[in-house]
Design goal:
By secondary structure, the chain is an alpha+beta fold. The chain is about 45% helix and about 20% strand. The protein contains 13 helices and ten strands. It has a five-stranded antiparallel beta sheet with strand order 7-3-10-9-8, sandwiched between helices. A three-stranded antiparallel beta sheet has the order 4-5-6, with helices on one face. Strands 1-2 form a two-stranded antiparallel sheet.
């Protein structure tokens, strides 16, 4: 059921007020402090309707209302008005990241500057090399029965693998095999290659192509960039000064989450998105109790043909209108920096 214009206006105003105050919002306060131009009784009736529809919750009998996860989802998708990143903030982000000396330094600085300017927990994930695009494979004979496989991605990343051959093969077979692999697999991601190499080379996997047979049988090893996704986490100091962390148990939960790096990495959007677009997950959408009070805002950056993710974690009551563009802008600066690597 679609909300009426009045319901949307009241909901948007209530969320804006709750984000600002961190206190349940009453109808009287909303009527007095916003430009809704309706009476307190009208606001109260509309808030009651929104509560019945699952958009508002009343934490205490005498208290005002607070938004539910459903309300936040509608807010970020339809109601929020994103704000431009201030020129001074853009300069601060750029200057912090510009002096980085490596990919790891870029991502560490990005997580730190997001923590600082957003007053949330800044996070950055290293690139997902499984989605790197295969460019070329070269086969080099090292010694009798030993072969060096040189795998190159479109991004310029290179992996070398030593293989023990079952037969001693002449250079012409090495050249023929590498040429066939490059013709059939060029432009595919490593993930696609591992999943489809048997079908793509089915007509050539036969006894008179022994090296090709061996490579296909070992595709899960050959076409795998041995690179564990790393996560960079910013300073949580500003985040834990927020009202939500008056409860020490919430601080303990946050630090526990920070120590579970794989779980933390899993909170960021892991599907290949449009570059510099944004993705948000809210509260119970995370399907883990530890994250039921938090939101994650993330955006993708690109390095060659691969991508990584940068974002923030914080209370659901975060100022989305201001923070979403900051995360997007930071991702775009990472793009610029990593284009030089």
């Amino acid at each position: 059921m679609a909300l009426t214009e009045r319901q949307r206006a009241v909901l948007s105003a209530l969320i804006d007020r709750y984000i600002e105050s961190a206190e349940p919002v009453s109808s009287r306060m909303l009527a007095r402090t916003t430009t809704l131009n309706v009476s307190s009784a009208t606001v109260r009736n509309t808030m009651s309707e929104l509560e019945d529809l699952g958009y508002l919750d009343q934490p205490h009998t005498s208290a005002g209302r607070i938004p539910t996860d459903r309300a936040y989802r509608l807010y970020v998708e339809e109601l929020v008005h994103l704000k431009d990143v201030a020129t001074a903030t853009q300069a601060q982000i750029r200057e912090t990241i510009d002096i980085a000396t490596s990919v790891e330094d870029v991502l560490d600085r990005a997580s730190q500057v997001l923590s600082l300017i957003c007053e949330q927990l800044g996070i950055a994930l290293s690139p997902h090399f499984d989605d790197g695009i295969f460019n070329a494979l070269e086969l080099i004979r090292l010694a009798e029965h030993h072969l060096l496989v040189v795998l190159t991605l479109k991004s310029g990343l290179v992996r070398t693998i030593s293989m023990e051959l079952r037969l001693d093969l002449p250079p012409s077979i090495l050249a023929q095999t590498s040429r066939l692999l490059n013709e059939r697999l060029h432009g595919l991601t490593l993930r696609e290659i591992r999943h489809s190499i048997n079908d793509r080379l089915r007509d050539k996997v036969r006894p008179d192509f022994p090296l090709l047979v061996q490579i296909v049988q070992n595709a899960d090893h050959v076409f795998q960039m041995e690179h564990e996704v790393r996560i960079f986490v910013g300073d949580p100091t500003r985040l834990i000064n927020k009202p939500e962390f008056m409860d020490r148990d919430h601080i303990a939960d946050l630090f526990c989450l920070m120590n579970r790096r794989h779980q933390l990495a899993g909170l960021l959007n892991t599907t290949p998105p449009e570059m510099n677009d944004w993705h948000i997950s809210i509260g119970t959408e995370h399907q883990t109790e530890a994250m039921s009070n938090y939101s994650v805002v993330s955006s993708a950056y690109r390095i060659g043909s691969t991508y990584g993710t940068v974002g923030i974690i914080g209370p659901k009551r975060m100022p989305y209108a201001r923070l979403i563009p900051m995360v997007q802008f930071t991702a775009s600066i990472i793009d610029e920096m990593l284009a030089t690597y």
